[in-house]
Write a structure and sequence with these properties.
By secondary structure, this protein is α+β, with helices and mostly antiparallel strands. The protein has a single domain, classed as Alpha-Beta Plaits (2-Layer Sandwich), CATH 3.30.70. It is built from three helices and four strands; from the N terminus they run E-E-H-E-E-H-H. A four-stranded antiparallel β-sheet has the order 1-2-4-3, covered by helices on one side. Helix 1 packs across helix 3. The chain is globular, with a radius of gyration of 16 Å.
């Protein structure tokens, strides 16, 4: 989905906002989805996590390369790498464990 920010003259630059989808590993439940959403909703108000497909899909409107880097870095820091990430076995296990901590945080926060 493309959304143009405004109509401009032929000499002005314009921004194209693109709704992008990412296949993400280690998202197992609503707690995980809540953690991802809470961490990213301020910068990406339309962030969505689809729990009905495997691997899970995280989608958001991206306005710049910096937005995409921020989103992907945040997902990885929470323990949710992309399915396309090239990782060692140790890194996969580390991120899998880290995702459990993020999940529990999301469950506790959503239960309050």
């Amino acid at each position: 989905m493309l959304i143009f920010s405004k109509i401009l003259s032929k000499h002005e630059w314009y921004t194209i906002y693109v709704k992008k989808q990412y296949e993400v590993l280690n998202i197992k439940c609503g707690g995980c989805a809540s953690t991802v959403t809470d961490a990213l909703v301020e910068r990406f108000p339309d962030i969505e996590v689809q729990l009905d497909v495997e691997p899970r899909i995280v989608s958001a409107t991206i306005a710049s390369e910096a937005d995409e880097v921020y989103l992907l870095d945040t997902l990885r820091k929470l323990g949710y790498p992309l399915s396309s990430d090239d990782m060692s076995v140790v890194t996969k296990k580390y991120l899998y464990g880290k995702s459990y901590v993020s999940c529990m945080h999301g469950k506790l926060k959503s239960s309050k």
